[in-house]
Amino acid sequence: GKVHYREFVLKEANFTRLCETKSMLVVNDSFPGPVIRVTKGDTVYVNVQNQGNYGLTIHWHGVHQPRNSWSDGPEYITQCPIEPKSNFTYEIIFSDEEGTLWWHAHSDWTRHSVHGAIVILPKEETGYPFLQPDGEEILVFGSWYKGDVNKEVNEDLETGNVTPQSNAYTINGQPGDLCPCSNESTYRWQVEHGKTYLLRLVSAVMNVEIYFAIAQHNLTVVGMSGSYVKPILTDVVMISPGQTMDVLVTANQPLGRYYMAARQYDSIRQGVKNYDKENVTAILEYKGNYTPSVSPSFPNNLPTYADFNPAIEFMKRIRSLANKDHPINVPQNITTRMYVTASENNVLVDLGGENVTALASSLNNISWVNPTTDVLLAYYRNISGIYTADFPDNPPSFFNFTEDDSPDDTTLSVQGTKVRMLNYNEEVEIVFQGTNLLDVSMDHPMHLHGYSFYVIGSGYGVFDIETDPKGYNFDDPPKLNTVTLPKNGWVAIRFKASNPGVWLWHCHYERHLSWGMSSVFIVKNGGTPETSIREPPPYLPPCKDSFTS
Ligand code: C2O
Ligand code: CU
C-alpha cells in the first residue's frame, strides 16, 4: 500500500452554536476534524502536535493495527497522554478494513470536539461490491455542549454525580435550522438528479443512539464498521456511538430541498420525557432551476426517541456479504468462553474522608480504573504492580439479571485494573448480558479495539445457554467493531485472537466508559517475530510516574 503523512495540530478555537460562543479543542481549526482518506492496505503517519491546554491521545476507531498497539491510542491503556507543547507520531496500519471508520480523542470527554472520519477505498482492481457510486458525502453526527464539558465531567466524576447532557446534536458540526440561531449555518448537501451517492455516516455522538432518515428518500445500507453487509433497504437507520455506516442514496425525487434529520433513540427513558425538540437537521438540496418550498420536507417516518421497534428491526437485518470475494470465517473451536454482564451500578468512593456511593458502570461487576503507566508499556517491559490478570469470565453471581431483583452484592461494583490474558490464536466467544441493576437498563454499544468480531446472535431477556446457541448464525453474521447490546438483552460475539497486543474493550457511551465499563485483553505473542508485538516506536509520550523516565 501507499504511505501518507498528515499533521494534526490540536488547538483551542472559538465556535458559535445555539447563540453562544465558546472555545474548544479541535484539530486543524475544524469541527469535525479533517478526513483521513486512504486505499485499503495503506499506512498513514499522523503527527499529532498538542498546542492545547491539557494532555490527550487519539484513537483510530476500527483500524485493526496488526501487532501495533503502540499506535492504538487509548489513554493509559496503550500510551500516556501527549502533553501540551509536545507531539507524537502515530503509525496507522490499514489491513483488511474497507469502507468508513473514524478517529477520535481517547481521553476524558475530549472526543466530543476532537474527531473525524476515515475513508478507506477499495483497491482499484477489486472495486466496490455494488455499482460504482456517482459521488460521495460524509455526515458526522456529534453532541454539542454549551459549557466546558470536560471540566463539568471531571467534577461530576469526583462527586459521584450524573454527567452532563448535551444541548444539541450536530450534523457535520451544525445543529441545523430547527435549533435557535442556526438558520444560516445549517449543513447543506447538493445532489444532482438521477445520481447515486455513497453516504458515509459516523456517529461521534457521546451518550445516545440516534435514528437518521432523509425525507422521501430510501437508504440502502451496504457497509458497517469497515466491512460490507448485504444491502438493507430501509427508510430509517439506527446508529450507536462509535458506529459507522455506508449507505447508498439515489437522488430520484422531484427537484427540491429535503431534510436529513436525526433524533435520539433513548433506550433508557422510554415513555418518560419528550425529546422531540432535539432534532438535528441538514438539508439535501437538488441542483437545478426550481423555486424551493419555504420549508424543506421533513422525514415523517423518523421514529420518536421512545420508539423501540425500529431499532430492533434494523439490528436484526444486519448480515455480512459472505460471498466468494468477501468470505467469512467464524471461529468454531472456542477455547475461551466469557459471559459478561454490563451494568450501571454504584461504587463506594472516599470523598474527603467520608465514604459515599457514586455512580459507576461495570463489566462482571468490575469497574475499570486507569493505571498511571499504560498497560501496554507495563506488559512489554514487565513492570509489575500496574494491572492484575484476573478479570473474571463470569459475573460474581447469577440471578434474573433483567428483572428488578438485584442481590445487594451486585449493586456495588469492585474497582480494579483487571485484564484478561489470551493466548495467541485462541478462539473466543463472549456473551454480553445487559442488566437491570438499581432498576436502570439501557442499550450498550460494545466496542473492541484491534479486532472486528462476528455477531452470531442476540436476543432479549437473560441468555439461555441451553436454547439460545441453537439460533446462532454461522452463515452470514455481521463483522463489526461496535455492536449494540440491546436493553435487557444479550449479544454473542466471536473472534480469533490473532492480533497480539493490548486491546481495550468498552461501552462506547462516554459516561459508561468514564464510570468504568471497560476492560483490556492482552493477547500474547505467537512465538515468531511475525506473530509478535512490534518494536515500540523510538519515542513514546512519557508517563508521569518514575517507572518510565
Ligand atoms: Cu471509538 Cu475505545 O473507542
Ligand atoms: Cu453502556
Automatic annotation (TrEMBL):
<dbReference type="InterPro" id="IPR034288">
    <property type="entry name" value="CuRO_1_LCC"/>
</dbReference>
<dbReference type="GO" id="GO:0052716">
    <property type="term" value="F:hydroquinone:oxygen oxidoreductase activity"/>
</dbReference>
<dbReference type="InterPro" id="IPR034289">
    <property type="entry name" value="CuRO_3_LCC"/>
</dbReference>
<keyword id="KW-0479">Metal-binding</keyword>
<keyword id="KW-0186">Copper</keyword>
<dbReference type="InterPro" id="IPR034285">
    <property type="entry name" value="CuRO_2_LCC"/>
</dbReference>
<dbReference type="InterPro" id="IPR001117">
    <property type="entry name" value="Cu-oxidase_2nd"/>
</dbReference>
<protein>
    <recommendedName>
        <fullName>Laccase</fullName>
        <ecNumber>1.10.3.2</ecNumber>
    </recommendedName>
</protein>
<feature type="domain" description="Plastocyanin-like">
    <location>
        <begin position="138"/>
        <end position="289"/>
    </location>
</feature>
<keyword id="KW-0560">Oxidoreductase</keyword>
<comment type="function">
    <text>Lignin degradation and detoxification of lignin-derived products.</text>
</comment>
<dbReference type="InterPro" id="IPR011707">
    <property type="entry name" value="Cu-oxidase-like_N"/>
</dbReference>
<keyword id="KW-0964">Secreted</keyword>
<dbReference type="InterPro" id="IPR017761">
    <property type="entry name" value="Laccase"/>
</dbReference>
<keyword id="KW-0732">Signal</keyword>
<keyword id="KW-0325">Glycoprotein</keyword>
<dbReference type="InterPro" id="IPR011706">
    <property type="entry name" value="Cu-oxidase_C"/>
</dbReference>
<dbReference type="Pfam" id="PF07732">
    <property type="entry name" value="Cu-oxidase_3"/>
</dbReference>
<dbReference type="InterPro" id="IPR033138">
    <property type="entry name" value="Cu_oxidase_CS"/>
</dbReference>
<dbReference type="Pfam" id="PF07731">
    <property type="entry name" value="Cu-oxidase_2"/>
</dbReference>
<keyword id="KW-0439">Lignin degradation</keyword>
<keyword id="KW-0677">Repeat</keyword>
<feature type="domain" description="Plastocyanin-like">
    <location>
        <begin position="391"/>
        <end position="525"/>
    </location>
</feature>
<keyword id="KW-0052">Apoplast</keyword>
<dbReference type="GO" id="GO:0048046">
    <property type="term" value="C:apoplast"/>
</dbReference>
<dbReference type="GO" id="GO:0046274">
    <property type="term" value="P:lignin catabolic process"/>
</dbReference>
<feature type="domain" description="Plastocyanin-like">
    <location>
        <begin position="11"/>
        <end position="124"/>
    </location>
</feature>
<dbReference type="GO" id="GO:0005507">
    <property type="term" value="F:copper ion binding"/>
</dbReference>
<dbReference type="Pfam" id="PF00394">
    <property type="entry name" value="Cu-oxidase"/>
</dbReference>
<dbReference type="InterPro" id="IPR002355">
    <property type="entry name" value="Cu_oxidase_Cu_BS"/>
</dbReference>
<dbReference type="InterPro" id="IPR045087">
    <property type="entry name" value="Cu-oxidase_fam"/>
</dbReference>
<dbReference type="InterPro" id="IPR008972">
    <property type="entry name" value="Cupredoxin"/>
</dbReference>
<comment type="similarity">
    <text>Belongs to the multicopper oxidase family.</text>
</comment>
